[in-house]
Amino acid sequence: MDLLNKHIASILRAKDEESLAIFVGAGVSKSSETKTIKMPSWGDLIDALISDLNIKDESDYLKIAQLYYLTFGEHLYYKRIKDFFPENVPHSKIHDLIFKLNPHSVITTNWDTLLEAAINAKSYFYNIISSDKDLMKSYLGKKLIKMHGDFKNHNIVFKEDDYLNYSFNFPLIENYVKSVISTHTVLFLGYSYNDI
Q1: Gap between the Cα atoms of 26 and 193, Å rounded
Q2: What global pTM score does this model have?
Q3: Strand partners, 186
Q4: What is each CA distance from 51 to 68, 73, 178, in whole angstroms?
C-alpha cells in the first residue's frame, strides 16, 4: 500500500472510530471565491492596514495590526478588517465534504462564516464555539471550534496582543484544541507550509 492510500485508510478508520478532527485554514475559504467575491489573505489585510497607516518600515504582521489598533481604536480596527469579509458568501463543495466526513471536531482559525453556513444548510449537529463561554455551554459531542474567535463575539485573534494573551483569553479553547490534537487523527486542509 502506498503512502497516500495509507493516509486515506487512516482518515477513514478515524472517521469510523469517531476520532477524526479536521483543521481548516484559509485555503478552504478561498474555494468559495467567485469572479466577483474575493476572500482575503493575511497579506491582503496587512497591505490595507499598511496603506491606512502610511508606514513603510514595518514588516511584522502582528505589530502592524497592533499599531493599527492603537492608532485608530478598536471600533475602526474591527470595521476595517470585517469589511474585507463579504456577507452571504455561499459555502463551497469543500465545506460540504468536510462535514460529510462527520468529524468529531472541526477546528479553524478562519473568521468567516462559511463553515457555519455549511452546517446550517444541511442541518448538521455541531456546536459552534468561538469563545470559552460557548465551550462551557456546548452540549453536543461534535464541535466547530473557531479558535481565533469571530466578528460576532468581537474577539478575533490578529494583532500582537491577541497572540501574547491567547492563553489568558481562550484558556478552555486552547486546552480543548490541545486535547483534540493529542487524541484524534487530525487532517489539515487549506494551510500552506508557511502557516504551520
Answers
A1: 13
A2: 0.92
A3: 21
A4: 10, 16, 37
Query: Strands, DSSP E only, in 48-184?
Result: 105-108, 127-129, 143-146
Cα 53 to Cα 57: distance, rounded to the nearest angstrom: 11
Nearest to 157 by CA among 87, 61, 53, 88: 61
Kindly report, residue by residue over 95-113, the tens digit of the pLDDT: 999 999 999 999 999 999 9
Could you tell me the three cell numbers for 126?
Answer: 455541531
C-alpha cell at 132: 470559552
CA angle 85, 90, 99 (to 5 degrees): 105
Helix-helix angle 93-100:114-122, to 10 degrees? 60
pLDDT digits (tens, 9 = 90+) for 136-187: 999 888 999 999 999 999 999 999 999 999 999 999 999 999 999 999 999 9
Q: How many CB atoms lie within 10 A of CB 136?
A: 9
Q: Which residue has the cell 471536531?
A: 105
Distance of CA 183 to the CA centre of its chain: 20
